[in-house]
Amino acid sequence: TFNPGWNDDATAKSNFEDVRSLEARLEEAGVEILKRAEPGKGPAHFLIADPDGNQILIDQHETAPE
């Protein structure tokens, strides 16, 4: 699991890239999105897989900065 918006201590960061933007960039690079993030600006998540088929959850708990 990767949590944009949190540091290594699970403390909120003041600046980070929203999961929807990360999802779009990965898709443009050819990565298959297994489960898409809900639209909006608040918390959301999406799911991808690595080349071995291991699922990776990108899970945003904070509202992205403007």
Which stretches are low in confidence, meaning pLDDT under 50 for 5 or more residues running? Answer: none
Query: Would you count the extended β strands for me?
Result: 2
Average predicted confidence as pLDDT: 90
Assembly type of the chains comes to single chain
Shape: globular
Distance between the termini: 24 Å
Helix count equals: 1
How would a crystallographer describe the biggest sheet?
Answer: 2 strands, antiparallel
The run of helices and strands is HEE
Rg value: 12 Å
Helix content: 10-25%
Percent strand = 15-25%
Q: Helix/strand/pairing class, anyone?
A: alpha+beta
**Which strand order does the major sheet show?**
1-2
Question: Could you please describe the fold and organization of this structure?
Answer:
The protein is 15% helix and 18% strand. The chain is built from one helix and two strands. The chain is globular.
Features:
66 residues, two-stranded antiparallel sheet, globular, 1 helix
Task: Please give a quick description of this structure.
The chain is α+β, with helices and mostly antiparallel strands.
